[in-house]
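Structure ticket #2291
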Amino acid sequence: MRFSAEAPRSRRRFIAWLTVLIALGFCGPVAMAHVGSPDIYADGSAGPYRLFVTVRPPMVIPGVAEIEVRVDPAGRSGVVSGIEIAPIPLTGEASRHPPVADAMKQSTTDKGFFTGTLWIMASGSWQIRFTVHGSRGDGVLSIPVPATSSATRGMQAGLGVLLGSLGLLLVLGLVGIVGAAARDAQLPPRAQARPDKRRRAWIAMCVALAVIGAALWFSKLWWDNEANNYSKYVYKPLAMQAQLSSSQTLRLTIEDPGWLKSRRIDDFVLDHDHLMHLYLIREPGLDLVYHLHPEQVAPGQFQLSLPSIAAGQYRLYADVVHATGFPETLVAQMTLPEIQGRALSGDDAMGSAPAVSSLQGALGTAVCPSVPEGGPRFRLPDGYTMLWNNAATVPAKTAQVFTFTLLDAGGKPPADMALYMGMVGHAAFVKDDGTVFAHVHPSGTVSMAALMMAAAQNQGKSDAMASMPGMGNGIPSTVGFPYGFPTAGTYRIFVQMKHGQTVETAAFDACAGPAR
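Resolution: structure written out below.
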């Protein structure tokens, strides 16, 4: 589709959106990544410009996504003069016909901070394309965004009372008008209505009240029916059943609860060389974590020969990515006996730590754990140490880069640093009550499979993948993870880095205070 230069801006926008909406009818189902952590955090480069992106998707669709961008300070990546954003389907024909971009608003006090909003008009696989203009030319970066209605929003109590009062006033006024018309419409000026006219007026008002009441009742039935129909489109995650066979094999069965008929359980794609990334975390202490990779044996069926595992109650978080580029995190619980299984191999890894200490009573009182000089340290079994370089107490809903450093037994960066599944590191952010789980990469909370789909569309505009953190040529001993705690509470952060053939797993406790 082509737009003439003379076409009005509003007409071009309408045609572009119409193309998008038609194409979305053929898109695959939407999925929700992570658990209890809907906001998207990403760190990447649009050409020469380094961007830290936060996207807060709408709770309902259609809805408005809130977007924030922090640009790397001037002098390191050039001066940014403006950023434009556009919502585009991640896959399909509509991804080739982006709508007219909207300009983000630059802060008057902080020239490196931009804000903006975008309407997401339909559920589906989306990306937000950032076009950056600055002193070093233009750059492009696309961030995948899953868009779906996650809940139905009720009316605020105050607004309900106000609208109810106005509605009652309108009903009484209409009934009064009907009564006056039946009683006084045909009377001469200053004449008094006869008793039969008054009786007819009362009858007319009663009839009018009954008719209005019936209309309101049928309107409520219609409204409730529409609300029930809308609730069918609220996201329902895939269900996962976990069973342990006599041969100490873990069997995972995935079932679709029927959210959308077009959703499939046989279209998973590789993400970091695996169809599924499974975290087993022992509760309630979060003192043991296993990062495993089951194999698919049939559509919706995965299995894994378990390594040696200590007995206990475990919560399972399984990350998968659909062919549309959307990730889902499946959740299950199971009680395991002590298992004498195989040795860990390949990309499988485990870690242990003291039980997490609940800090719920300390929230908002600044009585979170004290931070030792030099930052929190985690001593690893082979004498290595991992450092957390951030404060252990941060407000909820606050984006930042959580930075960790691996040191060898001599306190120096390991000379044999290696990539762990293509990344400098992986992190899992888990709330102590199990309501939040997020598997985060150095590039952010988005899946790498979806990020690669979006980056492929920008070839020739920006080499996005090469500029993603953790994807460079050198392998540093420090890694950062863009994230923000979604709610206040106690969190445990499991961080994994690799040197040689050893995958190190450290655990750090964080206290998220009330959101600012």
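Closing remark: The radius of gyration is 29 Å.
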